[in-house]
Design goal:
Strand order of the largest sheet: 6-2-1-7-15-14
Mean pLDDT: 93
Radius of gyration: 21 Å
Order of helices and strands: EHEHEHEEHEHEEEEEEHEEEH
Shape: elongated
Largest sheet: 6 strands, mixed
Low-confidence stretches: 228-238
Oligomer: single chain
Number of strands: 15
Distance between the termini: 18 Å
Strand content: 25-35%
Length: 377
């Protein structure tokens, strides 16, 4: 169907992280509806050093998450996303990486729900498991470089006529002029959903992640020592430490890897802790001694806030009346303009709260959001 014969629907997407961008891509490529897409965001691809958003600082790979084993919808998102990313490998934006998960006890084997999701899953023999670990599994996974991957998404969207508008949106009332009378809104604001007036989702919380990006020729394997679900632990101590090594694809810079890290629930601190960085490097060097080789380069230290949510991710439609009316009378006055005061119901599709799993759920979430958009046109 040509774009001229398709119905045109205004679509406003709040947020330009990996979830918002992927939703925009799926909508822009839809064969049934011509969405006129505007992305409103404070932070966008290119703002690589802004700690106000999470996507540039992510590990950007597929790794096991407990929620996928208990929530069928999340498992479906991850399967769709893994398959799509696997198919993208020839582009150079995604790396098909051999992977190992290691454990000191057989507990690692009891948490595996994902053996049919990944590629080439198998158990490691005793001789293949390095000390001090006792058991392990191997498989092939997918990894990305956030700066290259997000830049590609933005470029693809701009080539399809998507408009990027830099704007700090404090209230849903501010998007009414962009949505118009027939448009739809996607809320992909992640942690911003906590303070966005009209949403105010206080179940959102940060998980502080500190990491190191290195250049090292010997890191070609995703390595992840299994530990109890750190998301169940709040407070200080060893429960906040996670260790993994993620080799990255490189269209512009080769032989880089992401060293993780920390998992500090409820911690909003974005300052760099060099003592934590030392611990990360030492733990990862135990897994991969080549990190201590002379040619290794430290490229950057990162601190980012993973946007998690009590009760799990939120992907659903909601009808909201704008301008907002509050019983306390504290809703900001909408900007003056035509129809600014006229009450109007709009459909908001919420898509946020992915925690550390935004990249590995992005394509599946985007397809579900597209379905919700069409149901609410």
């Amino acid at each position: 169907m040509s774009s001229d014969s398709k119905s045109h629907v205004p679509l406003v997407i709040l947020g330009a992280g990996v979830i918002g961008l992927t939703i925009a891509y799926i909508a822009a490529c839809d064969s049934d509806v011509a969405f006129d897409i505007t992305i409103l965001a404070r932070d966008m691809p290119g703002d690589w050093h802004s700690q106000a958003w999470a996507s540039p600082f992510a590990g950007a790979s597929w790794s096991p998450s407990p929620l996928g084993g208990t929530d069928e919808r999340v498992r479906r998102w991850e399967q769709i996303s893994f398959d799509r990313l696997w198919e993208m490998a020839p582009s150079g934006l995604v790396k098909r990486s051999p992977a190992k998960i290691l454990g000191e006890t057989d507990a690692v084997l009891s948490t595996i729900w994902w053996q049919d999701l990944v590629r080439d899953f198998g158990l490691l023999s005793e001789s293949e498991v390095p000390a001090p670990y006792k058991v392990g599994v191997s498989f092939n996974t997918v990894t990305m470089n956030p700066t290259e991957y997000l830049s590609w998404l933005r470029s693809e969207l701009e080539s399809r006529g998507v408009v990027f508008r830099r704007q700090y949106v404090r209230s849903l009332d501010e998007v009414k002029p962009f949505v118009g009378k027939t448009g739809l809104l996607v809320n992909a604001t992640s942690l911003g959903a906590r303070s966005l007036i009209g949403v105010e989702d206080t179940t959102m919380y940060p998980i502080r992640g500190q990491s190191i990006v290195v250049e090292c020729t010997g890191l070609q394997e995703f390595l992840y020592p299994h530990c109890p679900d750190v998301s169940l632990h709040v407070g200080g101590g060893l429960s906040e430490r996670v260790t993994s090594i993620t080799p990255r694809p490189g269209l512009t810079q080769t032989n880089t890897a992401f060293l993780n890290g920390t998992y500090q629930v409820g911690n909003w601190d974005t300052s760099l802790d060099m003592s934590a960085a030392k611990g990360i490097f030492e733990r990862c060097s135990t897994l991969a001694p080549c990190l201590k080789d002379e040619g290794t380069k430290i490229l950057m230290h990162n601190v980012g806030l993973r946007p998690d949510r009590k009760g799990g991710p939120r992907v659903e439609a909601e009808r909201i009346s704008l301008p907002l009316v509050r019983s306390d009378g504290l809703a900001p006055n909408p900007s003056p303009g035509e129809d600014a005061e006229q009450q109007q119901n709009i459909t908001v599709i919420h898509a946020y709260g992915m925690g550390a799993a935004g990249y590995q759920r992005s394509w599946g979430v985007a397809l579900e959001v597209l379905s919700l958009l069409k149901e609410n046109m």
